[in-house]
Design brief:
Elements: E1 2-6, H1 16-21, E2 26-29, H2 42-53, E3 58-63, H3 69-73, H4 78-94, E4 99-102, E5 114-118, E6 124-128, H5 130-140, H6 146-152, H7 165-173, H8 178-191, H9 207-216, H10 223-244, E7 247-250, H11 269-278, E8 284-289, H12 290-294, H13 301-308, E9 312-317, E10 320-322, E11 328-330, H14 340-350, E12 355-358, H15 379-399
Parallel strand pairs: 1-2, 1-12, 2-3, 3-4, 4-7, 7-8, 8-9, 9-12
Antiparallel strand pairs: 5-6, 6-11, 10-11
Length: 410
């Protein structure tokens, strides 16, 4: 697979020169300075593409060209925003960029409750604690109906059996302080969202109220309606994708659970089958995020890779470990539930040119002091890239595929 790296533009503290040294072939990025809902102009695309190419790499994947909320909930300006999206697709194609990773998650792009959870070896990783998220939902957000939903909440078979998340959230409420509440809001709303062209930024002075306003947009939107809205969007853009040879690859929901009363429609194998069959066009495909999928105890990640490899246009290689109580954390790229070694075999057989990036590396060896975006450390991801490069070299030898290490004479 093509070794790519998510890079956040010219202001990223991780430079393209650094990425060239560690063997990155392709860059995964976006026009982070363009406001949501505006056309990506060919001039801006060309400027960033040329800058990337000046370091000997290519702009392999757009992650992401955001699907604005009005498209997701079916607002009155949905058709206008779809036309804006199609114009951006045409401009990207004209500059030779043909793969778009996007998501159809309402409001939140991804969610964790701890961005620096300690590992036994002294590193830290991203972590999701159900009780802390329930506390945020009930006591900070004060979402109507939240208490009843968490009272009914059940874990999938095999994890969290006998756990009462609501009781834990109520107990947590007795120990929380305004400072801890602030940290949880920063983690769930700001630090995980503000750098991904999302709905929130570090400049928001009332993030809770803004969050509630976004949730209100989805009143009356259930799973069936959100699916219908996704189908409407995909059917509308597929002629442009055919015209421009543009591959759309949706990212699974992260985490793959229903949260905050919002429908989630890319969580399971059945969900993926639905959207692939609903719009059976080769340009309608999947970003196979092994980490997101492995956070769901009901997902057999290897079986899903075998089934969906033909419609996978982009791969995120990471892995999650689910604790017996149901909470989960990012795992080593050689561990966890995802079985990245077998995934590399599957995707290399299907398409050895498929773009792949390692994802959500550990924070290690001073990463925590360098101001990197949450989950996007340099040394931690470089360590993961080294692990994955070793896997790929071994798998390619098994399969008889020539393996070339970028940056070395061979």
């Amino acid at each position: 697979m093509e070794r790519t790296w998510r890079w956040f533009g010219k202001n990223d503290k991780i430079t393209l020169a650094m990425l060239k040294e560690i063997g990155v072939e392709g860059i995964v990025t976006a026009l982070h300075d363009v406001p949501l809902g505006e056309v990506w102009t060919r001039e801006k695309i060309h400027d960033l593409k040329t800058y990337i190419e000046s370091y000997g790499m290519r702009w392999s994947v757009v992650e992401s060209l955001p699907v604005v909320e009005t498209i997701k909930y079916g607002g009155p300006d949905r058709d206008h925003q779809i036309e804006v999206y199609k114009e951006s697709l045409r401009n990207l194609s004209a500059e030779g960029i043909h793969t778009i990773c996007y998501n159809f998650m309402p409001v939140l792009d991804w969610a964790r409750t701890d961005l620096n959870h300690p590992n036994p070896n002294g590193t830290t990783n991203l972590y999701f604690n159900y009780a802390e998220f329930a506390y945020f939902d009930i006591y900070i957000l004060k979402r109507p109906g939240a208490r009843e939903e968490w009272w009914r909440f059940q874990f999938p078979a095999g994890v969290g059996q006998g756990r009462n998340v609501l009781a834990e959230a109520d107990a947590l409420a007795k120990t929380m302080t305004p400072e801890k509440d602030h940290d949880l809001v920063e983690t769930i709303i700001i630090k995980t969202q503000g750098f991904v062209s999302g709905n929130f930024s570090e400049n928001d002075d009332a993030p809770i109220q803004k969050f509630r306003e976004f949730l209100d947009l989805y009143k009356g939107i259930d799973k069936a309606q959100l699916r219908a809205n996704m189908k409407y969007f995909l059917e509308a853009i597929m002629p442009t994708c055919e015209e421009c040879d543009m591959n759309m690859c949706v990212h699974p929901d992260d985490p793959p659970i229903e949260i905050l009363g919002l429908p989630r429609i890319v969580r399971t194998a059945d969900d993926i089958r639905w959207f692939l069959n609903a719009v059976p066009n080769k340009h309608n495909g999947l970003t196979f995020c092994a980490g997101s999928l492995s956070a769901g105890a009901y997902n057999n990640v290897v079986d899903m890779a075998r089934e969906f490899a033909p419609r996978t246009h982009f791969v995120h290689l990471r892995s999650c470990h689910i604790f017996p109580n149901g909470d989960f954390t990012e795992a080593s790229h050689l561990g966890g539930r995802a079985d990245i070694i077998e995934l590399c075999r599957i995707f290399e057989k299907e398409n050895p040119q498929l773009p792949m990036r390692v994802d959500h590396g550990m924070t290690m060896l001073g990463d925590e002091n360098r101001g990197y975006n949450a989950g996007y450390s340099f040394l931690g991801r470089m360590f993961a890239m080294g692990q994955v490069q070793g896997i790929l070299a071994t798998v390619d030898r098994e399969l008889g595929i020539p393996y070339k290490q970028p940056g070395f004479f061979e």
